[in-house]
Design brief:
2 copies of one chain form a homodimer. By secondary structure, chain A is mainly alpha-helical. Chain A has 2 domains: 53 residues, Arc Repressor Mutant, subunit A; 127 residues, Tetracycline Repressor, domain 2. Chain A is built from 11 helices and no strands. In chain A, helix 7 crosses helix 8. At the A-B interface, helix 7, helix 8, helix 9, helix 10 and helix 11 of A face helix 7, helix 8, helix 9, helix 10 and helix 11 of B. Chain A binds a DNA duplex through helix 2 and helix 3.
DNA sequence: CGATTGACTCGTACGACGTACGATGCAAAA
DNA sequence: TTTTGCATCGTACGTCGTACGAGTCAATCG
C-alpha cells in the first residue's frame, strides 16, 4: 500500500522542505505566490466544483496571465494536490495530552475530518487518487497512536486503521456526490414509483429518502468501533 | 438520500423500459447500437482509464463517425452511466433460495461487488457521483433483505446498509486509486525516510507498505459485521 | 409509381481546455 | 555598465465535447 506520484517538483529553487506549511494570509494584493494560487484555487473549487477550476479562470481571479502560474506550479495536478492538503489540516483536541477516552478522541478526529471534506466537497473524491499529503498523514499517525494506546493488537492495527479510513472516505464521498442543490428530486421521485415493486425492502425502509446523513455516520461509526474494540 | 441526474433520455423513441437489460453480444460487426457503444466504452475505460475515454476514440474503435454516437446516446455522461451499470451486474449465490448463513451471503455479495469494481477500476470512483442504476439497486435490495431476515432491527437497517456501502466504496476507491503499475515506488520510498521521524507509528506498523488488500478488506468487513450483528 | 417520411450517419465548425515555447521586464550582482 | 537570475505573460498548438445541418436509405403512403 504505497502512495503515489508527486515526484520531483521542477524548476523553482524548491521550497525549503518540499511540502511546507501551505497557508498564510492572502497578502495585500498582487505578488503571485504559491500560497495565493493554492488559496484561490480552493475558493474556485468551492464555488464551481472540480470541473470549474481552470487555469485560465484561476489566472483571471488572481489578476495574472495564465502562464505566470506555471512558474510557481508544475501543472494543474499540482494545484489539486496542494489545494487538497491545504484543506485537510487538523488542530487536534487541544492540549488534552492524552485523555483515556480514546474512543471519543477517535470519533472527534474522524468527524472533524469528514466535516472538513464536506466543507469542500471536491476534496473527498480527489483524496484517494492523489499522493498522501502531510496533513492527512498526520491524521493517520494520530489515529494509529490512539488505537495502539487503546490496546488494539499490532496485528490488527493496520486493518483497524484502513477500516476507519474506508468508512470515512466512503461515507464522505457518497455524501458529497449526492449534492442537495439540484432539482433531481422530481426524477428521483418518479423513479421511486418503479422501486416499490422491484425493490420492496429498500422502499420499506426508505433507504434513499432518509437524509439524516450526520446521524447515520455517527451511528455507523459507533458500530464499527464496537467491532474494532479490543475484546 | 436521493439519487441524481438521469433525467429524460432525449430523442430516440426511448427504449422499451427506460433502462432495460444493458448487455447482449457484440453482434456481427457494423450496425451501431447503444449496446455496442456501451460495451466498447467499457473496453476503452479498462484499457486507458477514465481520461482515456473520448468520444473520438470511441467512434474510431466502432468504425463510425463521432457524431453518429450522439444518435444513440445523449452525451458523454450518459456513456459513463451506462457503462457503469453494465459492469455492476450480480448473479447472486445461485439457488440457495435462502440459506440461514446470512453472514456468508452478505460477505459473498460484497466481495463480488468489490471484485467487479476492481476488475474495472474506473467504476469505483464513478459510482458515487452518478445515479444509482438498476444493478446496484438490486444489490442494495438483496443486502436489505438479507440483513432484515438476519434480525437487524428496522431502525438500524439504514445505518447498517450505509455502513457496509461506505466500507466497500471506501476500500475499493482507495485500492483502485493506488494502482500498482507506476514506478512511484521510488518516490514513495524516498518519502518514507522522512516518515520514520515524523510519523513513527505509521512507520512501525508499516501501514503504507502492507499490500494484502484482500485480506485487510475481508478482516475489516468481519469487524464491521461484528459491530452490526443484532445482539 | 413517385413523393414523403423518419431513422440513422457524419463532416464541419466553435469555443473551451492544458501547456510548450520564447520574448520581455526588472532587480541585484559583478 | 553589464550581466544574471527571477518572474511575468502573449501566442500558438493540439485536444476535447458537441451544435448544426446536410446527407443516405428503407419503409410508408397517396
Amino acid at each position: 500500500m504505497t502512495a503515489k506520484r508527486s515526484g520531483a517538483r521542477s524548476k523553482r529553487p524548491q521550497r525549503i522542505s518540499q511540502w511546507s506549511q501551505p497557508a498564510q494570509e492572502p497578502r495585500s494584493e498582487p505578488p503571485l505566490s504559491r500560497e495565493r494560487i493554492v488559496a484561490t484555487a480552493a475558493e474556485l473549487l468551492d464555488a464551481h466544483g472540480v470541473d470549474g477550476l481552470t487555469m485560465r479562470r484561476l489566472a483571471d481571479r488572481l489578476g495574472s496571465g495564465v502562464m505566470s502560474l506555471y512558474w510557481h506550479v508544475d501543472n494543474k495536478e499540482d494545484v489539486f494536490d496542494l489545494a487538497l492538503d491545504a484543506v485537510l489540516e487538523y488542530r487536534g483536541s487541544p492540549q488534552t495530552v492524552q485523555s483515556q477516552d480514546w474512543r471519543g478522541e477517535v470519533v472527534h478526529m474522524l468527524e472533524d475530518w469528514r466535516a472538513s471534506m464536506l466543507r469542500h466537497p471536491w476534496s473527498a473524491s480527489l483524496l484517494p487518487r492523489r499522493a498522501l499529503g502531510p496533513n492527512i498523514l498526520s491524521r493517520l499517525e494520530l489515529l494509529s497512536k490512539t488505537l495502539s494506546r487503546a490496546g488494539v493488537a499490532d496485528a490488527d492495527l493496520n486493518v483497524a486503521i484502513w477500516s476507519l479510513w474506508n468508512y470515512v472516505m466512503g461515507a464522505t464521498i457518497t455524501r458529497a456526490g449526492f449534492d442537495l442543490s439540484d432539482d433531481d428530486r422530481a426524477a428521483a421521485q418518479k423513479r421511486l414509483e418503479h422501486l416499490s415493486e422491484r425493490y420492496p425492502t429498500i422502499e420499506r425502509c426508505r433507504l434513499l429518502l432518509d437524509d439524516d446523513w450526520d446521524g447515520a455516520f455517527r451511528k455507523g461509526l459507533g458500530f464499527l468501533l464496537d467491532g474494532l474494540s479490543p475484546k
